[in-house]
């Protein structure tokens, strides 16, 4: 498929040409030309009339299969452009959906992509119906008024059916998630801009080989794997990548997948540290925008600067310092680490994760008293897998002071131990019995 790309930039809409071209390549298009314009949006054509005439000449000369806008087009603009160019015209979000269709493998991912596509079609069909009623023969996909109205009804019916199916998937996932918490797993979600290296990081953490390509939106299916961190049970989940200005209809369609971020104990926000700082900043703020929309900014967030092997030590230090200041300014703390997922250089991440885990609300300080000496090794092994031992006092009765996940207290009591809640220790202080 051959395409001509169009980018219009304004004070409110700073489109990245490099990212747009990468999207086109990821969708499998041969890019014949990129037309650019700096101006505010034209209400009828999005671009100005002079630039439209230039585009018409390009279309006649190069004969593309599609003209693809980097900007969002209104249904009216898409129709007006088609009428002038007589070639299919789509915008950035239809392009993203085309990539999603190529990448979706699981039943859930396919349903989510179909729902997003149908949501996008609704305003286009409504515009076609409006124009037919005005006497403009603009039937959607060549259909007449009756056919177009029937198609709109079909879209709405199908959207309702997909939502019900996704609700069932969501319910099943919630049951699994609760079970994982009951057996003491820490839940970590990988989030961030598309192609930042999240799947490579998942492989490095879990010691697996999930597909990880240097392409946008390689991951649409939720992938969860386990690994151990200092004896603790941890589950890490890879999620669909973000993109600047991710529209509400895509967020809604992929809500059951993105919910893994909302339900996680810790979020790893992954960025490509080999990119220029301006690009890193833009993608960081875009990712925060999606997390804000998901209402996930109240969770512990560790900013992970990946691909440090592709830049210098000095560059990575400077970016880490600036990112810490920016993260604090945006109210998500200053947990910033640099790694190379590809080379397995994760020491800094492991250390920060161990620190952050013990600050989670699910961790409280307890004193566990074990009356039977033969039970001590088993109790200590369980505590190490779900918390952290702070001190052990051996004697006729063994007293263990430790951070333990509150959801695992029942599991400990089944071993016949006595458990007493303690005040959380402050830095530099010991534990004190609560009243």
From TrEMBL:
The keyword Lipid biosynthesis does not apply. It is found in: Cytoplasm. Residues 186-361 form the Hflx-type G domain. GTP binds at residues 192-199, 217-221, 238-241, 306-309, 340-342. Mg(2+) binds at residues 199, 219. Pfam families: GTP-bdg_M, GTP-bdg_N, MMR_HSR1. GO terms for cellular component: cytoplasm. Its cofactor is Mg(2+). Keywords: Cytoplasm, GTP-binding, Magnesium, Metal-binding, Nucleotide-binding. GO terms for molecular function: GTP binding; GTPase activity; metal ion binding; ribosome binding. InterPro entries: G_HFLX_dom, GTP-bd, GTP-bd_M, GTPase_HflX, GTPase_HflX_N, GTPase_HflX_N_sf, P-loop_NTPase, Small_GTP-bd. It comes from the Archaea. Coiled coil: none annotated. GTPase that associates with the 50S ribosomal subunit and may have a role during protein synthesis or ribosome biogenesis. Belongs to the TRAFAC class OBG-HflX-like GTPase superfamily. HflX GTPase family. Monomer. Associates with the 50S ribosomal subunit. This is GTPase HflX. It comes from Thermococcus cleftensis (strain DSM 27260 / KACC 17922 / CL1). The gene is hflX.
């Amino acid at each position: 498929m051959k395409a001509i790309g169009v980018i219009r930039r304004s004070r409110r809409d700073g489109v990245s040409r490099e990212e747009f071209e990468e999207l086109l390549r990821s969708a499998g298009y041969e890019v014949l030309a990129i037309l650019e314009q700096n101006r505010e949006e034209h209400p009828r054509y999005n671009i100005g009339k002079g630039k439209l005439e230039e585009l018409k000449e390009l279309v006649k000369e190069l004969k593309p299969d599609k003209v693809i806008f980097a900007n969002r087009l209104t249904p009216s603009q898409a129709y007006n452009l088609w009428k002038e160019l007589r070639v299919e015209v789509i915008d950035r979000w239809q392009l993203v959906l085309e990539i999603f269709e190529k990448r979706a493998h699981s039943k859930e991912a396919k349903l989510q992509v179909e729902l997003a596509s149908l949501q996008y079609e609704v305003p286009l069909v409504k515009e076609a119906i409006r124009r037919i009623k005005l006497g403009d023969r603009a039937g959607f996909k060549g259909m007449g008024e009756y056919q177009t109205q029937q198609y709109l009804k079909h879209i709405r019916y199908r959207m309702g059916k997909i939502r019900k199916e996704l609700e069932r998937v969501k319910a099943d996932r919630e049951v699994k998630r609760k079970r994982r918490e009951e057996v003491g797993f820490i839940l970590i979600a990988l989030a961030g801009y598309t192609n930042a290296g999240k799947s490579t990081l998942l492989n490095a953490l879990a010691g697996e080989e999930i597909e990880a390509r240097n392409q946008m939106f390689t991951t649409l299916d939720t992938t969860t794997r386990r690994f151990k961190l200092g004896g603790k049970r941890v589950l890490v989940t890879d999620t669909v990548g973000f993109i600047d200005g991710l529209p509400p209809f895509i967020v809604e369609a992929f809500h059951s997948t993105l919910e893994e971020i909302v339900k996680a104990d810790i979020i790893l926000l992954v960025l490509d540290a080999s990119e220029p700082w301006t690009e890193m900043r833009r993608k960081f703020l875009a990712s925060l925008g999606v997390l804000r929309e998901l209402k996930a900014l109240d969770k512990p967030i560790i900013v992970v600067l990946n691909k440090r092997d592709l830049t210098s030590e000095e560059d990575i230090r400077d970016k880490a310092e600036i990112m810490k200041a920016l993260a604090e300014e945006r109210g998500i703390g200053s947990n910033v680490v640099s790694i190379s997922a590809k080379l397995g250089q994760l020491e800094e991440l492991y250390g920060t994760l161990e620190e952050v885990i013990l600050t989670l609300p699910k961790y409280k300080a307890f004193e566990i008293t074990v009356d039977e000496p033969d039970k001590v090794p088993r109790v200590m092994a369980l505590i190490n897998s779900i918390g952290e031992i702070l001190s052990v006092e051996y004697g006729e009765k063994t007293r263990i002071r430790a951070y333990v996940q509150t959801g695992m207290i029942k599991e400990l009591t089944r071993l016949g131990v006595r458990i007493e809640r303690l005040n959380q220790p402050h830095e530099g202080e010991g534990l004190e019995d609560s009243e």
